[in-house]
């Protein structure tokens, strides 16, 4: 009888313990009064053409997908403003196929990102060295130039960059 009680007590204790996990992408650590976020076009300090446009648009799309915030490009009337400068962009081959052509590239983007609370005039998120790394595979048999590979890769990884950045801001990682 004592063994049964101990087992029942252990089961009750185990079932009442919570691991504290939650679904990624669902929460927000921003103040509840933040409803409208300005996301002006990012500054591009690199030589990559249109990089700022692709990354800015991807971040806007990701914020809209989250569904909690109204997004604008104008700071006036916004509760918060996301300011970003793209300081570095590297596109490096890391894997090669049998004929010596690159089949996989690593892309590294380093940026400075700040989310400013316009209502209370304080910084909600600040990362002067936000580093994003991702690898991109070139489809086998693709007959595209080095420049075209870079453009396609930027388009693909901009979505991942946006997901990573938005998660860092909203989920306080």
Question: What are the main properties of this structure?
Answer:
33% strand; elongated; six-stranded mixed sheet; alpha/beta; 173 residues; Double Stranded RNA Binding Domain
Tally the beta strands: 6
Shape: elongated
- CATH topology tier name: Double Stranded RNA Binding Domain
Low-pLDDT windows of residues? 5-26
Kindly name the structural category.
alpha/beta
| SS strand fraction | 25-35%
Structure characterization notes:
By secondary structure, the protein is α/β, with parallel strands linked by helices. The chain has a single domain (28-170), classed as Lipoprotein like domain (Double Stranded RNA Binding Domain), CATH 3.30.160.150. The protein contains three helices and six strands, in the order αββαββββα. Strands 1, 2, 3, 4, 5 and 6 form a six-stranded mixed sheet that branches. Strand 4 and strand 5 form a beta hairpin. Helix 2 runs parallel beside helix 3 (146-170). The radius of gyration is 22 Å and the shape is elongated. The model is unreliable at 5-26 (pLDDT under 50).
Brief overview:
The protein is α/β, with parallel strands linked by helices.
Question: What is the fold's blueprint, element by element?
Answer:
Blueprint: H1 2-16, E1 36-38, E2 43-44, H2 51-66, E3 70-72, E4 80-96, E5 102-117, E6 122-137, H3 146-170
Parallel strand pairs: 1-3, 1-4, 2-4
Antiparallel strand pairs: 4-5, 5-6
């Amino acid at each position: 009888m004592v063994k049964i009680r101990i087992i029942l007590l252990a089961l009750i204790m185990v079932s009442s313990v919570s691991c504290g996990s939650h679904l990624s992408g669902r929460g927000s650590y921003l103040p509840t009064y933040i409803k409208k976020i300005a996301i002006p076009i990012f500054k591009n300090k690199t030589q990559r053409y249109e990089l700022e446009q692709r990354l800015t648009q991807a971040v806007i799309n990701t914020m809209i997908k989250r569904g909690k915030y109204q997004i604008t490009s104008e700071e006036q009337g916004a509760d918060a403003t996301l300011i970003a400068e793209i300081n570095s962009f590297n596109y490096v081959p890391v894997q090669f196929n049998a004929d010596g052509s690159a089949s996989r590239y690593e892309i590294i983007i380093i940026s400075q990102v700040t989310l400013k609370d316009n209502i209370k005039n304080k910084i909600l998120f600040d990362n002067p060295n936000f580093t994003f790394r991702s690898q991109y595979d070139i489809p086998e048999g693709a007959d595209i130039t080095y420049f075209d590979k870079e453009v396609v890769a930027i388009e693909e990884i901009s979505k991942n960059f946006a997901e990573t950045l938005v998660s860092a801001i909203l989920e306080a990682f």
